[in-house]
From TrEMBL:
The active site is at C89, H348, C378. GO terms for molecular function: acetyl-CoA C-acetyltransferase activity. Its EC number is 2.3.1.16, 2.3.1.9. Belongs to the thiolase-like superfamily. Thiolase family. Keywords: Acyltransferase, Transferase. InterPro entries: Thiolase, Thiolase-like, Thiolase_C, Thiolase_CS, Thiolase_N. This is 3-ketoacyl-CoA thiolase or Acetyl-CoA acetyltransferase. The keyword DNA-binding does not apply. Pfam families: Thiolase_C, Thiolase_N. Residues 5-261 form the Thiolase N-terminal domain. It comes from Cupriavidus basilensis.
Length: 392
């Protein structure tokens, strides 16, 4: 079977809700990343076999197959197709898996895996709250309610369940949140995100632009302190999680160009990384956020690797209990995890985060001269993708 290689990886800087990317239609924002991937790889855009794009809020401006709309908004020829994927927060990580599977099978040679989410313009949860006629409309079916009686699937509940299960305190979470900001600040000030970020024009909510380019993740709180983080109100009375120890609402897009050996020859480029392993696991949908823990252990076993074999980890910071519990379970070195900060500081553009994290991971492996990187993230419904890449 053919191998799958990453030959280009790029992302926009994250935008706060109502912030510097608020004026971008999500298809147009994603198109900026598609154009950047073509430019960075030097690819003939007509050679691209498909665009697979993750997106969670597939309603409003993100409805109607946002992947195809992004192609039509880009410089790619209309002969390039596109399809949209929803595996909740892991949507664009799954897009990467689908792209890799396509080129490994030989049915395609060059595929773009991407993701986009404008949480300003398509608020979180919108598709499941849209009104329907005749009283229909809940995503939780009668059969699901029978199987899980009285359960309301909630990520916030799952986060608190993880804190209790793994003995995590409010102070643990607050200190972790501060460290996320500190690492993101250090990475930004050292210019470690420069090569991965696609500069895009700042657009206000009304679409107007002032000539400024957006190049710095807007969610980073450069003035963050333990005192300020500890002053944030708890989401649930008696709980541990606050808005400061949860991922930030974010607008953003990211993408990776994935090819096989035939694709490498067509493009005449050197690969950045090779996909070494990819898997996905379903787990308890009630605690929901715990899936990355068993998924990582299973992935390492399937890959014939140990946790110490991995040089860098990207564990999505949906809520601080997730990476902290993951560290407990895997025994990984905290210094190797989220070395440039995570979603608590940098933002979590839902369907765009999988491609965003992999973009950061691939660039970090090159910057540090490391070999293996592992990425995983919790996903709605109690699932987790795991991807292991080898820097080349």
């Amino acid at each position: 079977m053919a191998e799958a290689y990453i030959v280009a990886a790029a992302r926009t800087a994250g935008g706060r809700k109502g912030g510097k990317l608020a004026g971008w239609h999500p298809a147009d924002l994603a198109a900026q990343v598609l154009n950047a991937l073509v430019a960075r790889s030097g690819a003939d855009p007509a050679l691209i076999d498909d665009v697979i794009m993750g997106c969670v809020g597939q309603a409003g401006e993100q409805a109607g197959n946002v992947a195809r709309n992004a192609v039509l908004a880009s410089k790619l020829p209309q002969s390039v197709p596109g399809t949209s994927v929803d595996r909740q927060c892991g949507s664009s990580q799954q897009a990467l898996h689908f792209a890799a599977q396509a080129v490994m099978s030989g049915t395609m040679d060059i595929v773009i895996a991407a993701g986009v989410e404008s949480m300003t313009r398509v608020p979180m949860g919108l598709p499941s709250t849209l009104p329907f006629k005749n009283g229909f409309g809940s995503s939780m079916s009668p059969a699901m309610q029978e199987r899980y009686p009285g359960v309301k699937f909630s990520q916030f509940t799952g986060a608190e369940m993880m804190s209790r299960k793994y003995g995590l305190t409010r102070d643990d979470l607050d200190r972790y949140a501060l460290e996320s900001h500190r690492r993101a600040i250090a990475a930004t000030q050292a210019g470690r995100f420069k090569d991965e970020i696609v500069p895009v024009a700042v657009r206000a909510a009304d679409g107007s632009a002032n000539g400024e380019l957006h190049t710095v993740d807007e969610g980073i709180r450069f003035e963050a302190s333990l005192e300020s983080i500890s002053s944030v109100k708890l989401i649930e009375e008696g709980g541990t999680v606050t808005a400061a120890s949860a991922s930030q609402i974010c607008d953003g897009a990211a993408g990776l160009m994935v090819v096989n050996e035939a694709g490498l020859k067509k493009l005449g480029v050197k690969p950045l990384a090779r996909i070494h392993h990819m898997s996905v696991l379903g787990h308890d949908p009630v605690i929901m956020l715990e899936a990355p823990l068993p998924a990582t252990l299973r992935a390492l076993d399937k890959a014939g690797m140990k946790i110490g074999d991995i040089d860098l980890f990207e564990i999505n910071e949906a809520f601080a209990p997730v990476p902290l519990a993951w560290l407990q379970t895997t025994g990984a070195d905290p210094a190797r995890m989220n070395v440039n900060g995570g979603a608590i500081a940098l933002g979590h553009p839902l369907g765009g985060s999988g491609a965003k994290l992999m973009t950061t991971l691939v660039h970090a492996l090159h910057a540090q001269g490391k070999r293996y990187g592992l990425q995983t993230m919790c996903e709605g419904g109690g699932m987790a993708n795991v991807t292991i890449v080898e820097r080349l």
